[in-house]
Amino acid sequence: MKILVLGAGRMGLGAAYDLAHNSEGVERVTVADVDEGRARAVAETLGGGGRVEAAQVNVEDRARVVELMRGHDAAVSCVTYFHNLSLARAAVEAGTNFCDLGGNNAVVDAELALDAEARAAGINIVPDCGLAPGMVSVLAAHGAARFSRLDGLHIRVGGLPQQPRPPLDYQIVFSVEGLINEYVERARVIRGGEPLEVESMTELESLDFPEPFGRMEAFQTSGGTSTLPETFAGRVRELDYKTIRYPGHCERFKLLIDLGLASGEEVEVGGAPVSPRGLLGELLYKHLPADGPDVVLIRLEFAGELAGAGRAARLRYDIIDRFDESTGLSAMQRTTSFPASVVAQMMARGLTTRKGAVPQERCVPPDAFVAELAARDIRIDESFVP
Which of 24, 147, 235, 319 has its CA 20 to 30 A from that of 252? Predict the structure, then answer.
């Protein structure tokens, strides 16, 4: 089994690590990046008994991408989301299974529109395979299968510093562009059984986790539900996704948005055009920490009637994953890139339940996926709550 990882950044490193060290049957891992030196550095860092190779590729070079994909059973995109549609099309041409880390609803919708072409090519195109959307989508399918009637499905996720520092009590754990995107685009939910959209950074709530975290906050953000509103339409009355942060973060960041600093429309400053969003991104990179030990908090709550039990219940899945000192991988790398690696391997092994361009909650076997997470020490703490 040969797997291609596109992008040698943090998530590319994480996916390649998992393929080289946590997986059986992977004979070669190719890490490809526009900067061949960076790809080579990742390959040398991972070792992997010579199984990890480096390659140079500009993902905008369609012919080169197709050529590279053809030598692999599956490809994982760990590059910025706006490349994913062209990469999915290249995968269809190459006849190579493809998954990505997602991050934008419109791009995902366009990828899923390739379903007929992907089925004709005998491959899978599975977008949004990171953390949220991603892992939580399969966990949603896993928990929902235990209910004969599902009234509510509520997903809460946060990637956070273990030691928060002002002014935002946040550190950069993935792309700043992706973060801003989540905060400004509208969020897909189900209300009263109907899919609809709501404004991000609204509907603030409090929730409690074990110490040292204690009381946290959560608010609407875009992208986290991805295709779940379509998948669960007619099956659940209430479904939403909120991002978890330390208390006060939402109010402080929303002020920046309300002042127009997340706008992509240029303004003139001193006679020169300036992109507020570009400036905000640069300032966040400059002023926010990025390398401290992190933690990922995940909570899914299911409410309804348990299958075979004939009684109402609320089931909770909690995951707390921390920076791994033994490998140097952050919690965000583990919970984002490891699930994508697992999906890539399932596609390559023919373990998905159907071919084509399809959301992972409809084609990834949930029990097998959860077992793979546990093998990587990403474990669900399951409980029933009042």
Answer: 319
Query: Would you kindly state where each structural domain of the chain is located, as residue ranges?
Result: 2-130+335-370, 135-329+380-384
- Is residue 98 packed enough to be buried (19+ CB in 10 Å), middle (13-18) or exposed (0-12)? buried
* 3 vs 17: CA distance, rounded Å: 12
DSSP state of 311: S
**Of the candidates 147, 262, 247, 263, which has an alpha carbon nearest to the alpha carbon of residue 204?**
247
**What amino acid occupies position 317?**
Y
Peptide bond into 212 cis (omega under 30): yes
Per-residue pLDDT of the chain (386 residues; tens, 9 = 90+): 999 999 999 999 999 999 999 888 999 999 999 999 999 999 999 986 789 999 999 999 999 999 999 999 999 999 988 899 999 999 999 999 999 998 788 899 999 999 999 999 999 999 999 999 999 999 999 999 999 999 999 999 999 999 999 999 999 877 788 789 889 999 999 999 999 999 999 999 999 999 999 999 999 999 899 999 999 999 999 999 999 999 999 999 999 999 999 999 999 999 999 999 999 999 999 999 888 999 999 999 999 999 988 899 999 999 999 999 999 999 999 999 999 999 999 999 999 999 999 999 999 999 999 999 999 999 999 999 98
User: Which CATH number is 2-130+335-370's, of 3.30.470.20, 3.30.360.10, 3.40.50.720, 3.40.50.150?
Assistant: 3.40.50.720
Domains 2-130+335-370 and 135-329+380-384 share a fold: no
Is the pTM for the entire model greater than 0.85?
Answer: yes
Q: Which residues are paired to 152 by β-bridges? A: 238, 303
Which residues face 65 on adjacent strands? Answer: none
Secondary structure of residue 138 in the 3-state scheme? helix
Between 2.40.70.10, 2.10.109.10, 3.30.360.10, 3.40.50.11890, what CATH number should domain 135-329+380-384 receive?
Answer: 3.30.360.10
Helix/strand/coil for 4: strand
168, 169, 173, 174 alpha-carbon torsion, rounded to 10°: -20
C-alpha 218/C-alpha 255 separation (Å) is 17
